Input
Amino acid sequence: MIDKDKIKVLIVASDKGGKFAPFIEEQITALEEYGVVIVRYPVTRKGIVGYLQEVPSLRRMIKREKPDVVHAHFGLSGLLANLQRMVPVVTTYHGSDINNPSTLRFSKMAMWLSKHNIFVSKRNINIAQPKKNYSLLPCGVNLTLLQVSNQLTERVISILKEGKINVLFAGAFDNVVKDPQLAQQVIEILSHDVEQVNLIELKGYMREEVVMLMHSCNVLLMTSKTEGSPQVIKEAMACGCPIVSVDVGDVAERIEGVDGCFVVKSREPVAIADALKKAVVFEGRTNGCERIIAMGLSNEQVVRQLLTIYQSLNKKR
Output
């Protein structure tokens, strides 16, 4: 069994301006708090050809660092990580690598080669149909970060409109996968019954500002065409923000039993607008944080499960 105070894990994931995606960074922080030694391999090239060009460099790092486990995030990173057979690989699939047919084929290769596969939603498991050695384990939420002061920054204050219904859109307006056009149609319908509606684009904010918005907005709206286990939903739950979402990813499973949160089976704007009205009338904070803890989805709880997976791989070596 790996001693958690000595385990070394090499994280392989796409480079995001000198860092990994925020949910990966938060998982890394939680692992380090448990005494795990983290080594990073940021993938800077793009596309399947670019990833394949990273193989020699990754192999050199593995020989130099001698990690106990390689943990890759997303299917292409998983395929890259498995083009060495010196160290066992755990691959986490986050949704876009399963829902997109053009990348699913590479993810399936990574699944076949990886010693263990992690999926963030049951829906993704149903699509991928893994044969063995897999777990359902969504990314966790940093509950410490979500306990912020009520002191809003000037930028957040300027975005929030006093006297209006502030609706936080779960994504950027230029991201077609998030379907901002549908969100705009919903807001237009809602505006007929509620005079003042302010739709806020979730783009370009610092992590603390995102938390402030989630604490301050009346409701979070998700209209995505596809998702895995959207982190924004879990973060909104932890902040007690009411949620309205189309039935995508694992949202229905996550917000089940959370007051003030609604999943709309239809993608009809009128149906979504009706749900938004109910969320606005709720006028309060939800019990989402309690639900996060009950599901075992704090970062601390998720990391404990990750350590169990890492330890099981070491036994087999």
About this structure: The two ends are 10 Å apart (CA to CA). The first strand starts at residue 8 and ends at 14. The chain is about 45% helix and 15% strand. The first helix runs from residue 22 to 33.
